[in-house]
Protein backbone atom coordinates (compact mmCIF):
# COMPACT_ATOMS: atom_id res chain seq x y z
CA UNK A 1 0.00 0.00 0.00
CA UNK A 2 2.74 2.46 0.95
CA UNK A 3 4.65 1.40 -2.14
CA UNK A 4 1.71 2.37 -4.42
CA UNK A 5 1.29 5.69 -2.60
CA UNK A 6 5.00 6.45 -2.97
CA UNK A 7 4.84 5.65 -6.70
CA UNK A 8 1.78 7.92 -7.17
CA UNK A 9 3.48 10.77 -5.28
CA UNK A 10 6.65 10.30 -7.37
CA UNK A 11 4.65 10.37 -10.61
CA UNK A 12 2.77 13.52 -9.55
CA UNK A 13 6.03 15.19 -8.54
CA UNK A 14 7.67 14.34 -11.87
CA UNK A 15 4.62 15.60 -13.79
CA UNK A 16 4.49 18.89 -11.86
CA UNK A 17 8.23 19.49 -12.29
CA UNK A 18 7.91 18.65 -15.99
CA UNK A 19 4.96 21.01 -16.32
CA UNK A 20 6.98 23.79 -14.71
CA UNK A 21 9.86 23.32 -17.16
CA UNK A 22 7.50 23.19 -20.14
CA UNK A 23 5.93 26.46 -18.94
CA UNK A 24 9.35 28.10 -18.50
CA UNK A 25 10.44 26.86 -21.94
CA UNK A 26 7.36 28.34 -23.63
CA UNK A 27 7.74 31.71 -21.89
CA UNK A 28 11.47 31.86 -22.71
CA UNK A 29 11.29 30.80 -26.36
CA UNK A 30 7.82 32.11 -27.18
CA UNK A 31 7.34 35.34 -25.19
CA UNK A 32 3.96 37.11 -25.28
CA UNK A 33 3.51 39.46 -28.22
CA UNK A 34 2.05 42.30 -26.17
CA UNK A 35 0.87 43.48 -22.81
CA UNK A 36 -2.78 42.74 -23.42
CA UNK A 37 -3.68 46.41 -23.50
CA UNK A 38 -5.39 47.91 -26.51
CA UNK A 39 -2.81 49.31 -28.93
CA UNK A 40 -2.86 53.05 -29.45
CA UNK A 41 -1.11 55.34 -31.85
CA UNK A 42 0.73 58.28 -30.33
CA UNK A 43 0.36 61.30 -32.52
CA UNK A 44 3.63 63.04 -33.44
CA UNK A 45 1.96 66.41 -32.78
CA UNK A 46 1.11 65.36 -29.22
CA UNK A 47 4.71 64.30 -28.65
CA UNK A 48 6.03 67.66 -29.88
CA UNK A 49 3.51 69.52 -27.72
CA UNK A 50 4.49 67.54 -24.63
CA UNK A 51 8.19 68.10 -25.24
CA UNK A 52 7.67 71.84 -25.77
CA UNK A 53 5.64 72.11 -22.55
CA UNK A 54 8.31 70.21 -20.66
CA UNK A 55 11.09 72.42 -22.05
CA UNK A 56 9.19 75.60 -21.19
CA UNK A 57 8.49 74.40 -17.64
CA UNK A 58 12.22 73.73 -17.23
CA UNK A 59 13.10 77.26 -18.40
CA UNK A 60 10.72 79.07 -16.01
CA UNK A 61 11.12 81.90 -15.08
CA UNK A 62 11.65 83.10 -18.64
CA UNK A 63 12.40 86.83 -18.73
CA UNK A 64 12.07 88.64 -22.05
CA UNK A 65 11.89 92.37 -22.87
CA UNK A 66 8.17 92.45 -23.67
CA UNK A 67 6.86 89.87 -21.19
CA UNK A 68 7.90 87.16 -18.76
CA UNK A 69 6.64 83.66 -18.17
CA UNK A 70 6.70 83.38 -14.40
CA UNK A 71 5.12 80.09 -13.42
CA UNK A 72 3.16 77.02 -14.44
CA UNK A 73 -0.02 76.17 -12.54
CA UNK A 74 -0.32 72.38 -12.54
CA UNK A 75 -3.90 72.47 -11.27
CA UNK A 76 -5.04 74.63 -14.21
CA UNK A 77 -2.51 73.39 -16.73
CA UNK A 78 -1.57 76.97 -17.66
CA UNK A 79 1.49 79.15 -17.83
CA UNK A 80 1.28 82.58 -16.17
CA UNK A 81 2.52 85.25 -18.58
CA UNK A 82 3.06 88.79 -17.29
CA UNK A 83 2.96 91.41 -20.03
CA UNK A 84 5.27 94.41 -19.68
CA UNK A 85 3.01 97.44 -19.37
CA UNK A 86 5.91 99.89 -19.83
CA UNK A 87 6.57 98.48 -23.31
CA UNK A 88 2.82 98.50 -24.12
CA UNK A 89 2.88 94.79 -24.80
CA UNK A 90 -0.37 93.42 -26.17
CA UNK A 91 -1.59 89.82 -26.30
CA UNK A 92 -0.97 89.88 -30.07
CA UNK A 93 2.74 90.50 -29.45
CA UNK A 94 2.86 87.43 -27.25
CA UNK A 95 0.93 85.37 -29.82
CA UNK A 96 3.36 86.41 -32.57
CA UNK A 97 6.31 85.46 -30.36
CA UNK A 98 4.73 82.11 -29.58
CA UNK A 99 4.23 81.32 -33.28
CA UNK A 100 7.90 81.97 -34.06
CA UNK A 101 9.46 80.45 -30.94
CA UNK A 102 10.56 76.91 -30.21
CA UNK A 103 7.38 76.58 -28.13
CA UNK A 104 5.03 77.07 -31.09
CA UNK A 105 3.45 73.64 -30.64
CA UNK A 106 1.98 74.70 -27.27
CA UNK A 107 -1.64 75.84 -27.71
CA UNK A 108 -2.37 79.46 -26.76
CA UNK A 109 -5.14 78.32 -24.40
CA UNK A 110 -2.39 77.08 -22.07
CA UNK A 111 -1.23 80.64 -21.35
CA UNK A 112 -2.85 82.99 -18.87
CA UNK A 113 -1.96 86.59 -19.80
CA UNK A 114 -1.89 89.18 -17.04
CA UNK A 115 -0.70 92.78 -16.99
CA UNK A 116 2.28 93.77 -14.86
CA UNK A 117 1.55 95.31 -11.48
Quickly list its features:
117 residues; 2 domains; 3 helices; 45% helix
Task: Report the C-alpha radius of gyration, rounded.
Answer: 31 Å
Quote the average pLDDT: 83
Give the count of structural domains. Answer: 2
Order of helices and strands: HHEEEHE
Largest sheet, in brief, is:
4 strands, mixed
Q: End-to-end span in angstroms?
A: 96 Å
Task: Return residue spans where pLDDT drops below 50 for at least 5 consecutive residues.
Answer: none
Q: What is the spatial order of strands in the main beta sheet?
A: 1-2-3-4
Structural class: alpha+beta
Overall morphology: rod-shaped
Number of strands: 4
What does the model show?
This protein has a four-stranded mixed sheet, with no helix packed on it. The chain has three helices and four strands; from the N terminus they run ααβββαβ. The chain is 45% helix and 17% strand. It has two domains: 1-36; 49-115, no CATH class. The protein is α+β, with helices and mostly antiparallel strands.
Amino acid sequence: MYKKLAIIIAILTILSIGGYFVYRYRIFYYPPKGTGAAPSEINNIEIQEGMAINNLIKSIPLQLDLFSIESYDYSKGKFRVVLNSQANTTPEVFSNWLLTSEYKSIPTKMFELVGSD
